[in-house]
Amino acid sequence: MAQSDSHAVQATTRRMALALFITLGFVFIEAAAGIIANSLALLTDAAHNLTDVIALALSWYAIRLTLRPAHSGKTYGYHRAGILIALFNSTTLVLIALGIFYEAYQRLLNPPEVEGGLLTVVAALAFVVNLGTALLVKPGSDRDLNQRSAFIHLAGDALSTLGALGAGVLIMLTGWTILDPLVSMFIGLLIVWNAWLIIRESVEILLEGTPRDIDVTAMVTDIQQIDGVRGVHDLHVWSITQSMRALSAHVLVDDEPVSVGAGIQRQINAVLQQRYNITHATLQLECVGCEPDTLYCELNSINHG
């Protein structure tokens, strides 16, 4: 890992640690207020914030792991640790949301009295805390799924506390305490939706699927337009993490000197990096007589051949 990348990771872990301690402190405040106000919306948000604390702690640890160098046992290093943490965090969110739905349903059947004033004050404070911590972990979240899972946790909380704030105001104005469990169900739906997005992308990466923004047909066409390339086969494109892509392929070329082949490889690598953000490519050059039948390698036929 380059020194600049190492400094960026350390800065990210510091911001995430600060967000963790702020969120943990607020969990105790919000839980106490929820008990006093008899508000499921506040208790729900406190529980969600507690999962944020766990998510931030795990994400912080996973980012720290990426600083460890690759070795014979982990030739790609520890970059996939963040994907595993993202998958774990998002899966537990779904389970928590199911509990929220059940409790909200019970309160819909028998709405309790809710202290709207306290609900409003604490919800407003929660919005400020959640928004601030979300902004702390946002830098770099568009390039790292683990970090994005932590950001979505906190950003989702900021949105849900807006709902709790609105419920508190309306309860004070109308006395409709049924709004409290309805807001809780809305929070639960937000949790499930955000969790599903992360689960889907995490599973795709772990299954080594082709990144969604890569058009393989267009990429093969771009490679074949390079002077000296006659064909491409046994192609594999996958993600190590959300921002780290890898590719391996057999490239058919004329029977040329090694120096010519090295030049072709450099041109292919340049195209892959500039147009498709693929910085780790393994290219096997082959000469005439190795023409394949298919673009993709059929592993089942190899394993059972």
User: Largest sheet at a glance?
Assistant: 3 strands, mixed
Report the CATH architecture of the largest domain: Up-down Bundle
Report the top-level CATH class of the largest domain: Mainly Alpha
Through-space gap between termini: 40 Å
Q: What is the domain tally? A: 2
| Helix/strand structural class | mainly alpha
CATH superfamily of the largest domain: Cation efflux protein transmembrane domain
Oligomer: single chain
Q: State Rg.
A: 25 Å
What is the β-strand count? 3
List the helices and strands and how they pair.
Layout: H1 3-37, H2 40-65, H3 81-109, H4 116-137, H5 145-174, H6 179-206, H7 216-224, E1 229-239, E2 245-253, H8 258-276, E3 278-286, H9 299-303
Parallel strand pairs: 2-3
Antiparallel strand pairs: 1-2
Helix pairs in contact: 1-2, 1-4, 2-3, 2-5, 2-6, 3-5, 3-6, 4-5, 5-6
How would you describe this protein?
By secondary structure, the protein is mainly alpha-helical. The protein is built from nine helices and three strands. It has a three-stranded mixed sheet, covered by helices on one side. The chain is elongated, with a radius of gyration of 25 Å. The two termini are 40 Å apart.
Outline of the structure:
The chain is mainly α and 305 residues long. 67% of the residues lie in helices and 10% in strands.
What labels describe this entry?
2 domains; three-stranded mixed sheet; Alpha-Beta Plaits; 9 helices; Alpha-lytic protease prodomain-like; mainly alpha; elongated; 305 residues; 67% helix
